[in-house]
Amino acid sequence: MLAVPGSCESKVRFRPVLPHSSPSELADALNKTGYLADDGLAVAAFLALKLQRPLLCEGEPGTGKTSLSKALAEALSLPLIRLQCYEGIDISQALYDWNFPRQILHLRALDSVPATERDVACVEQSLYSERFLLARPLLRALTEAPCLLLIDEIDRADDEFEAFLLQLLDENSVSIPEYGEVRAPTPPIVILTSNRTREVHDALKRRCLYHWLEHPPLEREVAILRRHIPGIDDDLAAQVGQATRTLRKLNLVKPPGVSESLDWAQSLLALGHSVLDSVAASETLGAVLKYREDRERAESHGLDQLVTAR
Asked: Is the dihedral of CA 202, 208, 209, 213 positive or negative?
C-alpha cells in the first residue's frame, strides 16, 4: 500500500536491526546461500547495511555483482525488487505510470452522474488516486519495504535518469506531481551495479559506499564451481578454473565471468568429459566464449596451452 502523501506516518524512518554483528557473520550467511564473498566485499556489504547507505558495486561483467544482491536478499529474508537499467529508460518505466484505460472507464462512469452533482475538482482528483497508480520498481521499493532494491547496470542509463535517483537515495522518497510525495516508512536496502561502460557521476557516488569486484582468484573460483555443481571432480574444477583464468588474460572482447565458468564445467559434464583436454575444450568453447573473434584468439593461442597452463 502506498504511503499517504504528506502524512506524519509516511515520514517515519525505520529499518530492522541488522541480524549480523560482523562482516564475517554476514559472509557466513552469504555462504549459506551459495555466494562466496571475499573479505573486502563482506566488509563493504556489512557497512552498507550498518550505515544504511546504498552500495555501488562496479566491475567487469560476470564478477558477481547482481548475484550479490540476490544472495543478500536471501540471507536477510527480504524480497528483491530489481530495476534493470537500459539506454532510454525513463521515469514512467522506473517509477510509476497511470492506468489510462481504467481512468477512461472511470470518467465514463461519472458521465452518468448529473452535471450538477459533479465537482470538477473532485473528478480530477479522483483520476490521480492510488487506485489508478501503477507502481514500477522504484515506487514498489518505497512502498513495499523492507526489501532490497537492485538498480542493475546504472551505467546504461543516461545522465538525466541518474540525476533523478538522487532524491530517492538521499531521502528515500520521490515526488509524483499529480499525487504528491511518497516516502518509505522503512528505507529499502539499495545495491547499484555498474559494468563501467561509462563513468557514474560524482553526485551519485557521493551518496553511496563503493566496492570494485574483481574476478575471483583460482581457489575461490574452484570453490564456486564445487559449490554450484555437486559431484564435479576436484581436478576438473581446477582445470576449468585455471583455463578460464588463462582466457581472461587474452585481451578478449568479452572475458568470461564466473557464470561462463559454470556453464563450461556443466557442458563438459553433459558431454561425459572428466578431463579438460584440447578436444573437450574445442567442443565446448561456445559455453565460455561468446564472440567469434574470441574463439579465434583462443584457438590461435593454442588449445593445448590453454588446458595445460598453470
From this structure: negative
